[in-house]
From TrEMBL:
Residues 24-388 form the Luciferase-like domain. FMN binds at T94, Y148, S217. It comes from Amycolatopsis xylanica. Belongs to the NtaA/SnaA/DszA monooxygenase family. This is FMN-dependent oxidoreductase, nitrilotriacetate monooxygenase family. It comes from the Bacteria.
Length: 438
């Protein structure tokens, strides 16, 4: 029996991977856009729709990063609204464990699980940097290395709250006039949180809503191995995916968990065409739309940590080397280039080897996992990746809002179904049932 593939739909929206200038692109904020994508994902029998969270607009060299599409509505409000226009699709939202409180998050996710009949998931993130936290008047709050301690105790506390009501606590006996047998009480005392009281919501349909984790450091992986149901990762290529998969799955045994208890779902994008050549040509066009000249210079400045605005994006790399001591120029984005000098060395070598301009180099160096081809080819490649343990499935990030997922749902999914590796209909009603058949 081949592995069954898990699929999620990432609502695009706050970075240069979205081609917002395309005539077909719609609003990032209107509910109609969220509804369109959710309905498409449900038509394609996806496991869940996924919303990321950005708590502060990113900045580059002191200005709002204009390659980002600004304006991301509140996660749980959008998901609550989506629960009313879908009936099976899982609803996953990102909420930071650094800038929230366990009681509040437990209530929000619990409410979503009740409203949706057991379809809620929480993506626990520690959030990138102090800059993000300034909106909360806690700019310097928690060093990066201390955030997982808080995240772990945060999640433990949330789980205690979710478990605080017995499954049969709500009696609702109209004859006897007994509504509730016993409310859920909790007491949590630890280094991060010291709270006690009654939780206001009874046990939810899933009991424990699904927990997703998205940090990539050693601590992040360990946290996921101990506590998460799903990891959302950036390791989407075959070799990188397999290395990540092996590393994370081997950590599970220490926590008494099996390989099937934690699903690995990297982000991936896709470009479809009637022929392979057409798909590749279209993919190239999309990358040029995503990385415009000004965006290319910004990417380079992120690595060089210098003002390079005088350079021509269609010309060669600057002769000047990166500044090893400078502060990053970009704030609010996860710092992908911690060692900027080393990254610059690799980029320079790549540009020299392939004779690339700045823009061509940025396109080459920043392209993430993409499935490109005819719908049938893409279905086969996705399946090969999953069967060869590069992942358990993918979180698909379309480049158009809101219609970018339509072709995948309507043209690729049927091929996956024919291969016998993807459901032809939902068999359960909760997200936990979709993901784990239990
Ligand atoms: C694939 C992926 C997606 C992420 N999505 C978000 C997000 O939506 N919102 C957010 O605040 N942080 C997000 N993060 C940042 C993580 O929460 C975390 O702060 C960051 O990766 C640093 O932790 P690490 O060193 O363990 O990777 C994401 C990280 C990864 C790897």
């Amino acid at each position: 029996m081949p592995k069954q593939i898990k699929l999620a739909a990432h609502f695009p929206g706050v970075n240069n991977t979205t081609v917002w200038s395309d005539p077909r692109s719609g609003s990032q904020i209107d509910f109609a856009s969220f509804e369109h994508m959710a309905r498409t994902a449900e038509r394609g029998k996806f496991d869940f729709i996924f919303l990321a969270e950005g708590l502060r607009l990113r900045e580059h060299a002191g200005k709002i990063l204009d390659s980002d599409v600004v304006g991301r509505p509140n996660t749980t409000t959008v998901l609550a609204a989506l629960s009313a226009v879908t009936s099976r699709l899982g609803l996953a939202g990102t909420l930071s464990s650094t800038f929230n409180e366990p009681y509040e998050v437990a209530r929000q996710v619990s409410t979503l699980d009740h409203l949706s009949g057991g379809r809620a998931a929480w993506n626990v993130v520690t959030s990138p940097d102090a800059f993000t936290g300034q909106n909360f008047r806690r700019g310097g709050f928690l060093k990066r290395e201390d955030r997982y301690q808080r995240a772990e105790e945060f999640l433990t506390t949330v789980r205690e709250l979710w478990d605080s009501w017995a499954p049969d606590a709500l009696v609702g006996d109209k004859q006897q006039g007994v509504f509730v047998r016993e409310v859920g009480r909790f007491v949590h005392s630890g280094p991060q949180f010291d709270i006690e009281g009654e939780f206001t919501l009874p046990r939810t349909p899933q009991g424990q809503p699904i927990v997703i984790q998205a940090g990539d450091s050693d601590e992040g992986r360990e946290f996921a191995a101990k506590s998460a149901d799903v990891i959302f990762s950036r390791h989407g290529t075959l070799e990188d995916g397999q290395a990540f998969f092996t590393d994370v799955k081997r950590r599970l045994a220490a926590y008494g968990r099996s390989h099937e208890d934690l699903l690995i779902m990297p982000a991936a994008t896709f470009v479809l065409g009637d022929t392979e050549e057409e798909a590749h040509e279209y993919a190239r066009e999309i990358r040029y739309q995503q990385v415009r000249p000004a965006t290319a210079i910004q990417f380079l400045e992120q690595v060089w940590r210098r003002d390079l605005s005088e350079y021509d994006a269609d010309g060669p790399l600057p002769e000047v080397d990166p500044d090893p001591d400078a502060e990053p120029l970009t704030w609010g984005r996860v710092q992908l280039h911690q060692d900027n000098v080393e990254t610059a060395r690799k980029w320079r070598a790549l540009a020299e080897e392939k004779k690339l301009s700045i823009r061509e180099l940025v396109i080459e160096a920043t392209t993430r996992q993409q499935f490109i081809g005819t719908p049938q080819q893409v279905a086969h490649t996705v399946n090969d990746y999953v069967q060869s343990d590069a992942s358990d499935g993918f979180v698909l990030v379309p480049h158009l809002t809101p219609g970018g997922l339509d072709e995948f749902a309507d043209k690729v999914v049927p091929h996956l179904q024919e291969l016998g590796v993807f459901r032809t209909d939902y068999t359960g009603s909760t997200l936990r049932e979709h993901l784990f058949s239990r």
